[in-house]
Here is the input.
Amino acid sequence: MKQYRLLVTQFCRGLMAIVAIALLTPAMGAQESANLKLHSQNGMLNHLAVGLQVGLGGTGIDVAMPLHRIVTVRAGIAGNAFGDIKFKAINTATDITQMQLVEDDAIKQAKMVDKVQLAIKPRFWNAFVMAEVHPFPTPFYFAAGLFAGNRTFLHFRNTNDGALQTLYDANKKVEDYNASFRTNYPPVGLKFGDYVFTPDENYNIDVKMKTWAVKPYLGIGFGQSMAQHHRLSVALDAGLLFWGKPKFVFNNGKKIKSTSKESGITHFISWFDAYPMIQIRLAYKIF
Here is the structure.
């Protein structure tokens, strides 16, 4: 919660800075030249454009309207529209060398399982509202907004449903052994970087990568959300989506602990509190 408040505070400060820049920028010369106006006529909500966008934030649609001579607001929805990504994960049972476990039938069966195919299912969709501030008589602008949607960024699941009973039985054996002899042997499951995904009672891997539901955004852009004197316009956005520190959780909500604190995916996620966003948008001005 403390980290969430800090990021929100940073977002608000950034938004205030954008507004200050917009209000203090001397643009009197631009007001006198019709060719430099953002819209063909000054006014609030007197134009409407629809747009399509694609990029790291996914594919989306939106609508845009002017709120002021230098401010345009956009609202829409964006998310991942591509299919599953499949890869083979390593079975950690092959790493077991402790003799007291190696001879157990459950461990022997698990060791016979080679790599298991997992599917990464991108399921990241968000509604958003965004303000664009054009403080200069150029296509350059600042952007700030909020995204709100599902918390699941990625969903991991084995492609062969209910096929991981041997790994489930082996993991139960290791858990029982740790409880009985106060040892700390790692779980049996499938490796994903510094994490081990263990099967559930249905003999499946069912793991989600979770983020915040509400995500502030700050960025810059080049282009226009609606053309000055034409129907079509193109814009490029680049910024950061503040989504909190991602975490891996099982289907029952239990958080998965990393096997390492200093390297690999764990080290990467430890500073990955913001998701980089680059979007290209093509818009058509209806009126």
Observations:
- Residues 2-285 form one domain.
- The first strand starts at residue 49 and ends at 55.
- Confidence is low (pLDDT under 50) at residues 17-40.
